[in-house]
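Hi, here's the filled form for the chain we discussed.

Project: internal
Contact: R.S.
Residues: 411
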Amino acid sequence: MSPEPDHPTPGEPSLRPHIFPLLVFVQFTVAAAGLVVEILAGRMLAPYVGMSLYTWTAVIAVVLAGFSAGHWVGGYIAERPTHTALKQTALAMALAALTTALTLIILRALAAGVISSFKSAEVSILILASAIAFLPSFFAGIPSPVLARIAVALKVGREGAALGAIFAASSLGAIAGTLATGFVFIAWLGTQLTILIVVITYVALAGLLLLRARSQRSGILIALISAGALLLSFSTLALAKSCTTESRYYCIRIIDFSAQAGTEAKLMVLDHLGHGINVKDAPARLITPYVALMDTVLRRRLGGAPTSSFFIGGGAYTLPRAWKAADPSARITVAEIDPEVTKLAQEEMWLSKQGIQVLHKDARAALEGLGRKFQVIVGDAFTDIAVPPHLVTREFFTLVQASLAPDGVYT
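And the returned structure, exactly as it came back:
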């Protein structure tokens, strides 16, 4: 006589094999939501500490630590009677919703104090990443051992296949969550609305697991936590946005700089780094020191503004705007990979594209495709504190050299 799947404790009804697809679905969804939070954590930190290698190293380490701790605790929960384990897993999902809803609030409360208290950027980044990403990842890690144990009990004689299905669902969910966040959610919905979607997902999973656990008393607590999570998440939609626009590449902010400039001016910030200051009625006024120095050196070298130039990166378009104002006949080409940067430069930073050729593509591909010679090529593309690696290679510098006129300058 074969053993009955999922032995119940006295008075506890057993689960039926037909719920196995439900277990796979729950694991897929939990994994997807967990990775959405991971990618969001990097974007949330960007306005405060940038989007550097340090940022992603900290976020990935913290999320993995949270998952690991959650799996460990979930293993103990999995040893309990099935309906008790499901009830406690439902509670974990409600707490995942609550801690996810709190991420933006916690970050805004802690960021300034943490950054000012530690001289080391790495320490500040790690503390902030831990504050927003560890607990959501911890609670998201709890269901896996519980679901795996129930799946094995339901598939007597096919335990290996059951485990494989749960593991595969986890991996596929993680892939789906990563792709959806990077390619769809952040660019189209923004961070705050994406957090709300994750919170709703966790709350729905908590309700689904609670129905299977059939625990009315625990249901009240879980319902209260879930309601609190939803209320917090909806309330964060009313918070001032950290970004003027969230693009596929940056958190872009436009900040009024008029008080400092003494006239109407604006600063463009990509993630946490200022990329240019434009003065409305004085395009030739260059406030940013490195831009002013570049302009001065090149004018002295060339005897005036360049007649043909190629910019690797547009940003606020401060220098192209100044050179076009100095010489309306100048041929200026800008390769700016992010269309949203150009759009905001036009809408908010008084950029006129008349007479400026803008190519929304990688600078290397743009330069290869033009096949022209330039008097000046300006390397002004950087992410946080680093130049994109493919723009500092021997191959790229060879391309730059081939694209310069005989008396040309690369700066």
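Let me know if anything looks off before we file it.
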